[in-house]
Design goal:
By secondary structure, this protein is α/β, with parallel strands linked by helices. It has 10 helices and 9 strands. The protein binds adenosine-5-diphosphoribose (APR).
Length: 248
């Protein structure tokens, strides 16, 4: 478990950062009730990743949609930001944090109040028509139907996050790279660093001279190679401790 001097050091590094950024993965939302992708209780341990194959979704949406709905809408609808999301929101509000680059599609950083959120893998709360391209907010649609259709001309709606076989949105990828080159301190929270090209973002930051704080319940691909300060523990608990330390 992380010791007090490490918490104090993290608070000091964050307070003195010139251009602070955060890079988050599924682990930041686990305490909100959103399951991670990998590991025992991971989504890909319980569901076939093939449901997020784009060509399969286009051809057989009636097979994929009920599962997509169950994982990303029915389950997510109960989730609310936890102490880690709220800490990042406090850091942005207080002018320290310049952006959050997230691989998550659960919209919880935005719900916590962060405005500068780079949605590297998209956002489940938007759906886009595969025919006309118009985007719709999930709350304005009835998603518990067999397959969601566009109110305009009935085209198939697809959640506006990356399916397998899709490329990263150009704008998100470019903004993430710019932030990685600008930042002098990046906080990594709850990510394995296994999924490309997202996994390159912290590497780019490190290569550009940034220091790295990593918060995770277990060591990752980054810990040995990139991390300057590893804080072992649950994201919400560790962030809560740093938050308290910064308010002292
Ligand atoms: N607090 C902090 N870290 C945690 C917690 C927690 N409460 N619970 C789990 N973790 C850590 C795990 O140790 C692991 O390192 O979070 C990470 C979760 O790993 P993944 O599920 O692989 O999530 P991520 O790295 O974000 O996956 C990246 O893979 O298929 C995809 O597109 C999907 O964006 C996702 C990408």
């Amino acid at each position: 478990m992380t010791k007090d001097p490490d918490i104090a050091r993290a608070a000091e590094m964050i307070s003195s950062a010139r251009y602070l950024t955060a890079f988050t993965g599924a682990g930041v939302s686990v305490e909100s009730g959103v399951p991670p992708f990998r590991g025992d209780k991971g989504i890909w341990n319980n569901y076939d990743p093939g449901i997020l194959d784009l060509s399969r979704y286009r051809s057989y949406p009636e097979e994929s949609w009920p599962v997509v709905y169950e994982i990303f809408y029915r389950n997510f609808s109960q989730a609310h930001p936890n102490k880690a999301h709220l800490f990042l929101s406090f850091l942005e509000e207080s002018g320290r944090l310049k952006s959050v680059i997230t691989q998550n599609i659960d919209n919880l950083h935005q719900e916590a109040g962060n405005r500068e959120v780079i949605e590297y893998h998209g956002n489940s709360q938007w759906l886009a028509c595969l025919y006309c391209g118009e985007r719709f907010w999930s709350g304005d649609l009835n998603l518990s139907v067999q397959v969601p259709r566009c109110p305009n001309e009935g085209g198939l709606l697809k959640p506006d996050f990356i399916f397998f076989g899709e490329t990263i949105p150009v704008d998100a990828s470019m903004r993430a790279n710019v932030e990685a080159e600008r930042t002098d301190l990046m906080i990594l929270i709850g990510t394995t660093g296994e999924v490309m090209p997202a996994a390159m973002v912290p590497r780019r930051a490190k290569n550009s001279g940034a220091s790295i704080i990593e918060i995770n319940i277990a060591e990752t691909n980054y810990t040995e190679q990139l991390t300057d300060l590893f804080l072992k523990g649950k994201a919400g608990e560790i962030c809560g401790m740093i938050h308290r330390e910064m308010r002292r």
